[in-house]
């Protein structure tokens, strides 16, 4: 029921009630039973109109998420978004076959990985397996069904197991050679650096051990104390008469010195 029409009905009922009340008062005077009767009739009519309004008012439909998605798919708003995904039949109202085919086609195109070489695809899949050696071990251990599934997922293309394993073996050998050459180059650099350090150290020792006569005017040579052995040998040194190695005599000598002082 229209809101405006409902308000007009209520306005007409209340206006009729006022007119009826005035007419009763004019014709019959203030008779309570007639005034109350007309009021009850008007109230009953107003209640009927309100009930009809509530009955005519439709409850808004509450859509679930599935219903909204199905409606959006039917309207075409989500078709482009969902064309690369597997959609449940509940969301597509039983029309998921075409979308599944489109999704499989999209996955097939992504599995081919245009612009990616076989070596790049192998290295990408080897990173997920822990390296080329681990990928080679996995290739040797899986069955044909698992191999076909892995080849399809990794995007290796139409290639046999033997050809793929040979390619991986060649890549492993090349990687080992590169690793060995890198280690050898690092060792050579370390040995060369050590040799340079050793030569510098030997040169430092050699310069440090050079005598002061070679550079008499150098200020950073330091100084040395030379002893005159001839002068020391000509000195007359006599041992004191009271000299003794006996500890008792030494102690008694100290006591005498203390008393005399």
Key terms for this structure?
261 residues; mainly alpha; 12 helices; 72% helix; 0% strand
Can you describe this structure?
- The radius of gyration is 57 Å and the shape is elongated.
- Among the domains are: 3-56; 65-110, no CATH class; 115-182.
- The N and C termini lie far apart (139 Å).
- It is built from 12 helices and no strands.
- With 261 residues, the protein is mostly helical.
Rg for CA atoms? 57 Å
Order of helices and strands: HHHHHHHHHHHH
What's the end-to-end separation, in Å?
139 Å
Number of DSSP helices?
12
Q: How many β strands by DSSP?
A: 0
Q: What summary fits the major beta sheet?
A: none
Record the SSE blueprint.
Blueprint: H1 3-28, H2 32-56, H3 65-75, H4 79-82, H5 89-92, H6 97-112, H7 118-129, H8 132-141, H9 144-154, H10 161-208, H11 229-234, H12 247-260
Helix pairs in contact: 1-2, 7-8, 8-10
Q: What's the short version?
A:
The chain is mostly helical and 261 residues long. It has helices at residues 3-28, 32-56, 65-75, 79-82, 89-92, 97-112, 118-129, 132-141, 144-154, 161-208, 229-234, 247-260.
């Amino acid at each position: 029921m229209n809101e405006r029409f409902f308000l007009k009905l209520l306005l007409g009922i209340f206006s009729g009630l006022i007119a009826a009340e005035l007419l009763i008062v004019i014709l019959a005077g203030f008779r309570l039973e007639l005034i109350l009767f007309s009021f009850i009739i008007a109230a009953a009519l107003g209640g009927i109109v309100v009930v009809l309004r509530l009955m005519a008012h439709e409850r808004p439909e509450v859509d679930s998420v599935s219903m909204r998605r199905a409606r959006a798919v039917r309207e075409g708003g989500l078709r482009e978004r969902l064309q690369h995904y597997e959609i449940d039949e509940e969301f597509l109202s039983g029309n998921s076959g075409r979308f599944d085919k489109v999704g499989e086609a999209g996955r097939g195109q992504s599995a081919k990985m245009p612009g990616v070489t076989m070596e790049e695809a192998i290295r990408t899949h080897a990173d997920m397996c822990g390296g080329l050696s681990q990928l080679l071990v996995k290739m040797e251990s899986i069955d044909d069904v698992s191999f076909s599934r892995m080849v399809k997922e990794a995007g290796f293309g139409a290639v046999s197991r033997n050809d793929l394993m040979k390619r991986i073996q060649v890549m492993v050998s090349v990687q080992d050679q590169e690793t060995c050459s890198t280690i050898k180059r690092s060792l050579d650099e370390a040995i060369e650096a050590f040799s340079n350090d050793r030569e510098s150290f030997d040169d430092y020792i050699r310069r440090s051990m050079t005598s002061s006569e070679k550079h008499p005017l150098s200020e950073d040579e330091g100084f040395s104390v030379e002893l005159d052995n001839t002068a020391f040998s000509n000195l007359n040194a006599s041992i004191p008469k009271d000299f003794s190695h006996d500890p008792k005599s030494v102690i008694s000598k100290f006591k005498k010195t203390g008393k005399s002082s």
